[in-house]
Every structure is written in structure tokens, then in C-alpha cells.
Write a structure and sequence with these properties.
The chain has 163 residues and is mostly helical. It is built from seven helices and two strands.
């Protein structure tokens, strides 16, 4: 069995990220699961990993460039995974320790300076602690963390492979 080329692997990473975003949009618009600030932050990092992989696919860099794109993909996946971990931590808190719920994102962006709005997005609030859906006992940020670990693995393979 031959392994996919580095270029095809970057395209597979891009397709995986596209599938993750489409799943999130399906959950939002068809299952009426409105994303919290940390969910939106995680989506941003999935998009970042996907666009990095798409750019690498389109450029088709040599070995050194492939490593640069792979390291960028790992970095974005690690950052996204850290927000998944933050949300899982919020979800594990006892009810009396959950932070208060904040305003929605549209209100934040309309009424607060950008840096203050981003601070709330990156920290999360009580909305992020609510578990609204599970599959096999794992919540959405848990599955997103699994996806980020997989994306890190594929990108690490791109960095380390010799072909």
C-alpha cells in the first residue's frame, strides 16, 4: 500500500477541516445548537488549520516548505485544542463555580472595544459550560479536541516524513 503524497495529505487535512466546519454549521442551523464564544474560537482555529493545508496543497512546496506548513498546522491545532480543553474544564466545574453568562457575540462586538470582546471570546463564560449535546458520552468540545489531536498528528507526519 502506498501512502498519499505530501500534497495529497495536505488536501486530506483541508477536506477534514471542511467536514468539521460543515458539521458545526449543521449543528448550528439544523440542530439549533447556537455556538458559544469558545466554540466560535475553536472554529476559527479549525479554519486556520484548513486554510494552511489548502495553501500548502496549492503551492506544493518542497521538503522545507512542507515542514513550515506542517509546523503552522500543528501550532494552529495546538491553540485550538487549548480552547477545547478550556471549555471542557468549564464544563467540569460544579454549578456554583461556573462563571456568569455574558452577552452574545454580536452585542459584544457592537458595544465593546475589539480587545475587550476578544478577551471574552477567548476566556469563555457560563454559556460555554453548558453541555448541549453528547455522543458516546463526549461533548462537542471533547470531540473537537479529538479532531485537533488528529490534525496535529497529520501535520506532524508532514513535518517528519522523508518523501
Amino acid at each position: 500500500m502506498t501512502l498519499p503524497s505530501p500534497r495529497l495529505t495536505f488536501f486530506i487535512i483541508f477536506l477534514g477541516c471542511t467536514g468539521l466546519i460543515l458539521t458545526g454549521l449543521y449543528m448550528q442551523y439544523f440542530m439549533d445548537l447556537y455556538p458559544c464564544p469558545l466554540c466560535i474560537t475553536q472554529r476559527v482555529f479549525i479554519v486556520a488549520v484548513g486554510l494552511t493545508a489548502l495553501l500548502a496543497f496549492l503551492i506544493n512546496p518542497g521538503r522545507g516548505g512542507r515542514r513550515v506548513f506542517g509546523v503552522l498546522g500543528i501550532l494552529f491545532a495546538m491553540l485550538g485544542g487549548s480552547f477545547s480543553i478550556r471549555q471542557l474544564w468549564l464544563q467540569s466545574l460544579p454549578e456554583d463555580q461556573v462563571p456568569a453568562c455574558g452577552p452574545d457575540i454580536a452585542y459584544l462586538l457592537d458595544n465593546f472595544p475589539l480587545m475587550d470582546a476578544l478577551s471574552v471570546l477567548l476566556r469563555g463564560d457560563g454559556n460555554c459550560a453548558e453541555v448541549v449535546w453528547t455522543f458516546l458520552g463526549i461533548s462537542i468540545p471533547g470531540w473537537t479536541l479529538v479532531a485537533f489531536v488528529g490534525l496535529m498528528g497529520f501535520n506532524l507526519w508532514q513535518v517528519l516524513r522523508r518523501t
